Amino acid sequence: MPPQLIDAVHAWRIPLAGTLALLGLVLVYLRGWMRLRRAAPAGPWSWRLSAFIGGIAALWIAIWSPLAMVDHELLTVHMIQHLVLMTVAAPLILLGAPAMIMLRALNARFVIRSTGRVVPPRGPSAVFDVIAHPLVCWCAGTLVVVVWHVPAAFALAMSSQGWHAFQRATFLAAGLLFWWPVIQPWPSSAKWPRWCVPLYLFLATLPCDALSAFFAFCGRTVYPPHLCHSGASPEARLSDQVSAGALMWFWVTVAYLVPAIRVVVQILSPLGEENDAEGASALIER
Q1: Where do the H-state alpha helices sit in 40-160?
Q2: pLDDT tens readout for residues 211-227
Q3: Cα 95 to Cα 92, 100, 235, distances in angstroms
Q4: pTM of the entire structure?
């Protein structure tokens, strides 16, 4: 374990405000989850609860664990933080069907029409359709990764706690947008044929591959020492940067390859699973 991380573990204190905020979110989710489980005991509620809690736990680890205390010291840890937010926390939260379950927790009757269906207001729905379009989601996920690794943007985030918090928030938001067309949680509907998803994921690996290759093979440190790796030798800083690039390449490849394979299997076995969106709509109407 790096000495910086050991020191961070010893100096770490649990962040009460952030931890309590996430616990409150989980409690609201649990309320809706229990209501839906009573309405439809045969539903896939156990794994949805596990996914949501896992996503919240990953979010907490990325932002408030000792890991987050050394992201100024090690670029590899900084990379892990961003990857956890985008490829672990975001998809797990979406797999928990948060919109459907939170609506039930907050009493969905207030937004159910006389037909019994939950329909968002026309204005927000139209805006949401644009934001949730696969092209917009792909661009959001890709641009956030590329822009924040530009040296000037990286320097801005590392020089201010406020900008650093904004950086983390944009990684999480971009992750939620990026995975939305892949997971298609309620109340989303497919904008493209399902076979486009593997291509969507493959194309998303290309900018990350280029960025990780640059970190690994450029032969020089990209970021100034006063922003990251302070006090380390040039050789140690370059080694850390190479490790960060290799980690990004491996992590992104696996994170995008696994769901792409799963989607291909689903396409080849169309009768193997029920349509999740239809099931979600039926449950929310009860």
Answers
A1: 45-64, 75-84, 90-95, 98-105, 122-131, 134-148, 151-158
A2: 999 999 998 888 876 55
A3: 5, 11, 42
A4: 0.84
What's the first-to-final CA gap in the chain, in angstroms? Answer: 51
The answer for residues whose C-beta is within 8 angstroms of residue 107's C-beta and 6 or more apart is: none
Which of these, 160, 158, 164, lies nearest to 224 by C-alpha position?
158
d(CA 18, CA 165) in angstroms, rounded, equals 12
Higher pLDDT, 209 or 223: 209
Specify the amino acid at residue 82: H
Q: Where are the domains of the chain?
A: 3-284
Residue in the structure block whose two tokens are 């037909």: 115
The whole-angstrom separation of Cα 276 and Cα 153 is: 39
Per mean pLDDT, which range of 202-211, 235-244, 277-286 is the poorest?
Answer: 277-286
118 beta partners:
112
Return the top range by mean pLDDT from 129-143, 176-190, 239-253.
239-253
Amino acid at 148: W
186, 100 contact by CB (below 8 A) = yes
Q: Any idea which residue has 């990325």 for tokens?
A: 62
Tens of pLDDT, residue by residue over 99-135, are 888 888 877 553 444 444 444 445 456 667 778 889 9
Closest of 115, 19, 94 to residue 276, by C-alpha: 94
Sequence-distant (≥ 6) Cβ neighbours of residue 99 within 8 angstroms? 185, 186, 187
Among candidate residues 129, 143, 229, 232, the one with its CA nearest the CA of residue 181: 129
